[in-house]
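Chain A, query sequence.
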Amino acid sequence: MAHQCVSVANLFKGTKQPPRNQPQLGSGVMLLTIDVGNTQTVLAVFAGERLAHSWRVRTNPYTTADELALLYKGLLATDDVNVSGIAACSTVPTITRELHAMFGRYFVHLRTILIEPGLKTGVRLAVDNPKEVGTDRVMNSLAAYRLYGGPAIVVDFGTSTNFDVIGAEGEFLGGALAAGIEISVEALAHRAAALRKVELVRPKSVIGKNTVTSMQSGTIFGFAGQVDGIVRRIDAEIGPVQAVIATGGLAPLVMDETSVITHHEPNLTLIGLRYVFQCTASV
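Chain A, predicted structure.
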């Protein structure tokens, strides 16, 4: 075999750029990537290495394979896109099952990859139970190491705030999970009778002058402080890192208020999916 995908470290060790013989996604390949999260699903089409189209839709854990196919085919048809391959990951078990069915029924003519435990992605999972690791975290680790080298930290702002730690050889070392921004605001509004859900924007001052700005301050600056604190503790355990990458739909709310974020890559998970697709295509 000309290329091996079982060890990303062997491909990128000692450089932040892919080596010349890294398998590339051909310019004629239109790849649909799908990242199913607990709250939202992000889809993007890559034309070669370029992200050409993207969509964000609500995740419904009860959606059937037929409904998924109708939605995805509709989005593609709206932008007049014909894809030649699909790579997907899902953190929602019911959707994972339906994706399997959808691929077998509606996209049987395409090469499809669904990231699941047991699939060789090039990321060694140096944790107690590798099967517990969300596939989105594996894809984030893969893309982060490819783009920035290691060690590195990914902070994924989604339904939960995930801190993914990538080692010097590209291995996933573990991390931390915290309640996400929106979940925290909703819980506060639900449990406190005098408080309500507020718009998540940066207030003018840390010192709020009313209930709304006080909640905005506590949310925005509070989560920024959480990120700074956890990243610094990780850094103290593993030593200096090459990069701290922010991703996820809620990253823009907080990342500018932190002192540790060095890069913002909103499509990190999708880039990881693209890499797995092109890597397996070369084997």
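The first strand starts at residue 30 and ends at 36. The mean pLDDT is 86.
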